[in-house]
């Protein structure tokens, strides 16, 4: 015999009430908690297909209320994520917010968006993460999990949910990330020649031959680019700013001044002269506060804009698959080419602004010499030993 759908008596204050809601075709349970300060009845509700399910949900609700917690029965993952994106990221860079929004719209909302946070379980998240691990690299998977966890945390602070289920799960290993590449010497020479005289050529010359980060090159102003030998000093660039929040560089050691190779100084000197001439022709007054690589309206270029122009340059340089390269790989090429030339890793780490050699060696250096030959070469020089023709032929 099915559960009754008939009327029930009105519950006293603090009592449970279970009734059938014909419009929802479900049982509804409520706890009467009197009136709010605004004079509105305060009756938290739950619903279910059976009275047994509703009674269980009412018990859970009352536990939360007894513990001083309250949560919404209808608050969804999508609502939590959108609330966090709209209200929980004040002061963040717009580019960071757009990244979080893209991750949420692509990897969270389509799979978990409709789920009610109050009913979300760790098993649900484990299954979701395992699915995303087949398409995301580990770092991206951790970022997606972080977006969900922080969204639920904000829901907790606003009284929308009692517990953060995202804190109960472990993030699995994702797909191996796309390995970064390094230009060979021949490829480097080709990109340095491509689109000569353009801003993107100047950008590539600076990035490849000095090793600045993409986020350090985009906000660079002429105030920090010294292309002339002022006071007899060598042309150099002050890497003191980035597009990061508050304009700081990535780390304290990232704030550095770097000497320019002669080619860089020549290219930037000629490039600056063209900028000054264009400014004068337009009737504007020149100031060194202007960006080195601006949009046509003088504003800072986006990373997407730079990447698009860089790939166009690679096309001109004869690269068969320019879309497989990113501007960051100019920096990995800088490190690799120096390493291939025999520059000590400690020196390279200092130039690129790393706090130690680990990241430089493990992540950035791509063209490693197969044999560490410096010691043997030094001993040959010291003792004047030269291999005989027979030894060269035999390889001994």
Give a description of the structure.
This protein is mainly alpha-helical and 396 residues long. It folds into three domains: 51 residues; 92 residues, DNA polymerase, domain 1; 180 residues, Orthogonal Bundle (hpI Integrase, Chain A). The protein is 45% helix and 7% strand. The protein has 16 helices and six strands. The protein has a three-stranded antiparallel sheet, covered by helices on one side. The protein has a three-stranded antiparallel sheet with strand order 4-5-6, with no helix packed on it. Helix 7 packs antiparallel against helix 8, helix 8 packs antiparallel against helix 10 and helix 12 runs antiparallel to helix 13. The radius of gyration is 31 Å and the shape is elongated. The protein starts with 15 loop residues before the first strand and ends with a helix. The C terminus is likely disordered.
């Amino acid at each position: 015999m099915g559960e009754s759908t008939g009327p029930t008596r009105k519950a006293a204050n603090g009592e449970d009430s279970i009734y059938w809601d014909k419009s929802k075709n479900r049982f509804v349970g409520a706890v009467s908690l009197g009136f709010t300060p605004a004079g509105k009845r305060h009756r938290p509700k739950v619903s279910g297909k059976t009275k047994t399910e509703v009674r269980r949900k009412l018990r859970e609700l009352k536990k939360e209320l007894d513990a001083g917690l309250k949560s919404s029965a209808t608050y969804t993952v999508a609502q939590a994520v959108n609330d966090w994106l709209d209200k929980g990221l004040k002061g963040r860079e717009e580019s960071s917010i757009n990244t979080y929004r893209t991750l949420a719209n692509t990897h969270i909302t389509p799979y978990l968006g409709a789920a009610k946070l109050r009913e979300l379980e760790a098993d649900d998240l484990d299954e979701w993460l395992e699915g995303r691990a087949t398409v995301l690299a580990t770092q991206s998977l951790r970022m997606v999990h972080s977006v969900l966890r922080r969204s639920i945390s904000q829901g907790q602070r606003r009284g929308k949910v009692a517990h953060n289920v995202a804190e109960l799960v472990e993030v699995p290993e994702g797909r191996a990330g796309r390995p970064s590449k390094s230009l060979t010497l021949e490829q480097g020479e080709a990109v340095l020649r491509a689109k000569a005289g353009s801003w993107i050529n100047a950008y590539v010359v600076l990035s490849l031959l000095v090793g600045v980060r993409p986020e350090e090159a985009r906000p660079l102003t002429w105030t920090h680019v010294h292309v002339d030998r002022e006071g007899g000093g060598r042309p150099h660039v002050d890497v003191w700013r980035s597009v990061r929040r508050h304009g700081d560089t990535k780390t304290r050691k990232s704030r550095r001044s770097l000497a320019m190779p002669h080619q860089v100084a020549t290219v930037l000197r000629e490039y600056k002269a063209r900028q000054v001439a264009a400014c004068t022709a337009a009737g504007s007054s020149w100031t060194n506060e202007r960006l080195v690589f601006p949009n046509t309206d003088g504003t800072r270029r986006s990373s997407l804009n730079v990447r698009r122009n860089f790939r166009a340059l690679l096309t001109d340089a004869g690269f068969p698959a320019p879309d497989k390269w990113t501007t960051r790989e100019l920096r990995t090429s800088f490190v690799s080419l120096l390493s291939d030339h025999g520059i000590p890793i400690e020196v390279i780490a200092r130039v690129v602004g790393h706090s130690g050699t680990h990241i430089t060696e493990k992540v950035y250096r791509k063209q490693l010499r197969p044999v560490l030959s410096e010691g043997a070469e030094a001993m040959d020089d010291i003792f004047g030993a030269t291999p005989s023709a027979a030894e060269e032929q035999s390889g001994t």
